[in-house]
Design a protein that fits this description.
4-stranded mixed β-sheet; Phosphoribosyl-aminoimidazole Synthetase, Chain A, domain 2; 60s Ribosomal Protein L30, Chain: A; alpha+beta; single chain; 10 helices; 7-stranded mixed β-sheet; ATP-binding
């Protein structure tokens, strides 16, 4: 039974994985020591998940752990980085081993899948929150960024869009549907698949990339701003799952709007030149992940939505922690 912070570390976090060859020293000292291969850069990202904001306090701890790590792995994928190391800062109201055990099992199961090693962190008492810092390796000069989109590039997304928002609506009991459909969409909200293999394959092909964490309508504007271009999205080209359309009772416009505004999708959005279409097809063939062209990069600034080539005036917003929306 864990009685204090060091018991938690010993029983739940230390020596839970095989050690990577590039980790010289992990949990148990003041700092971890890692060895960076020659001619590689280290991609670093930090994200926090807070109970009541990113998940309900009574959410399944295994699902929370998966979501916490997957969302951070998605940041590495967006940069074309291969996962290597992760640090975890965990704040707990109390020592609850019925919560810790499934949380850690799920966390390490996903970490092992992507060969990312927990090398340190912190545990403390307070309102439930999880902060991860992930580090990945990318060949020097090959990282994907948001600033390389060029006028004339195609805009792509992986997978389907909108399922996470539908799952969240069900979790919050804002909408209802049949039990099987609800279970599928809730699972997709919590357990998105980080597109690490896609990000790695896009090196040297994509001109810009990011992951969809705040909604397409918000996230693509980061590419537009950093690249000094405009983005046009054709809503009829948005990839929609059969489950999302069923959730929307076949209302295609509602499904399209969810697809555009849904946060925590953790699909990749990227741009690539028309000249790279064949190279893109070959590079992504082995990933077994579908990708869809949803628009074009244009001159100008900002985002425009089109439906069958005609401008739309939909007022859609992505997620922002500090913006209060009118009901």
């Amino acid at each position: 039974m864990a009685k204090n912070e060091f018991d938690i570390i010993k029983h739940y976090f230390a020596q839970q994985q095989l050690q990577r060859d590039d980790v010289a020293l992990a949990i148990g000292d003041d700092c971890a020591l890692v060895n960076v291969p020659v001619d590689f850069s280290v991609a670093v990202s930090t994200d926090s998940l807070v109970a009541g904001t990113h998940f309900l306090a009574d959410a399944d701890p295994a699902s929370v752990a998966y979501k916490a790590l997957a969302s951070n792995l998605s940041d590495l994928a967006a940069m074309g980085a291969t996962p290597a190391w992760v640090s975890l800062a965990l704040t707990l109201p109390t020592i609850d081993e019925t919560w810790l055990a499934p949380f850690c099992h799920s966390f390490f199961e996903l970490a092992n899948q992507y060969n990312i090693q927990l090398i340190g962190g912190d545990t403390t008492k307070g309102p439930l929150s999880i902060t991860l810092t992930v580090q990945g390796l990318v060949p020097r000069g090959q990282a994907l960024t948001r600033s390389g989109a060029q006028v004339g590039d195609d805009i792509y997304v992986t997978g389907d869009l909108g399922d996470s928002a539908a799952g969240l609506a069900l979790i919050l009991q804002q909408q209802h549907c049949d039990q099987h459909l609800a279970a599928t969409l809730i699972e997709r909200h919590f357990k998105a698949s980080p597109r690490v293999n896609v990000g790695e394959a896009l090196r040297g092909i994509a001109s810009a990339a990011l992951d969809i964490s705040d909604g397409v309508v918000a996230d693509v504007q980061h590419i537009a701003a950093r690249s000094n271009v405009a983005i046009e999205i054709e809503v009829e080209q948005l990839p929609l799952s059969a489950e999302l359309l069923a959730f929307c009772d076949g209302d295609r416009q509602q499904a399209q709007q969810l697809a555009l505004s849904s946060g925590e999708e953790y699909e990749l959005c990227f741009t690539a030149s028309a000249a790279n279409r064949d190279a893109l097809k070959v590079a992504l063939a082995h990933t077994n992940i579908k990708y869809t062209c949803i628009g074009k990069v244009k001159t100008g600034s900002g985002l425009s939505l089109l439906q069958s080539g005609k401008p739309l005036t939909w007022q859609l917003f992505g997620w922002d922690h500090f913006v209060v929306k009118d009901n």
